[in-house]
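Q: My labmate handed me this sequence with no annotations at all. I'd like to see what the chain might look like in three dimensions before we decide whether it's worth expressing. Could you predict it?
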Amino acid sequence: MIIDTHLHLIYRDRLRYPWLQSVPALDADFTWERYSREARRLGISSVLHMEVDVDPADMAAETDMVAAVSREPGSLIRGVIAACRPEDPGFAAYLEGQRANPLVKGFRRVLHVVPDDISEGALFRENIRRLSGTGLTFDLCMLPHQIDKAIALVDLAPDVTFILDHCGVPDIKGHGYEIWSQGVAEIAKRRNILVKISGVPAYGDLETWTLEDLKPYFEHVIAAFGFDRAIWGSDWPVCTLGGGLSTWVATTQALLHGATVVEKEMLFSGNAKRVWGLG
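A: Here is what I predict for the chain of 279 residues:
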């Protein structure tokens, strides 16, 4: 069993995605039908949809759209990580509205696309604390030089579960191992954060990356977090830039050479079941 905790669906006729204009290779429709055909062949049995940084006015509409897809016969979608803006005064009301939706399992605000001081603002931090006691998670998508900002948020709400997306977004192509590895080792000391093994090929050379390029990064996050705090995600369709869904599943299996059956089960499904109640 594989639970994909990081699927993006893109429907340009329904929602607005301002950032797509800067990434022509992804400026297309990436639908559930397109993803699910391949996913079922690979043994993916449950899926968590990750927000796609839509226009802020479309955040609630994105959740509604994914909810509609989840109700289609045979859908594998079991939950949503919804977009949010903790820096906005309306976050508290937005949070209460999303809490009423059982499909919503957590939130994400992509932070490497905004000034660093956004996450340091008093309102942002107050609103992160509002997640305490809700059972909702918060995904951290930040660059290695921002790891201190991520650590500050994790320390701010010790009873909130945080997820470090994409192994902490290492610069594999630029050989940025040192600064990245130090930050990962430090943030992993906090017990309320897990690491997501997702999207890693996108940070290597898209045309020439190899298994050996990824190994040191995978081995380091596992050494820092352990298999009991690691989860798997495809980052589809971003993963299509570096080979695609089947390539990433096969690469993960190769990276897991030598791991026990129990360790593989924790990474591919067990931890996601525990954190989000996915089945």
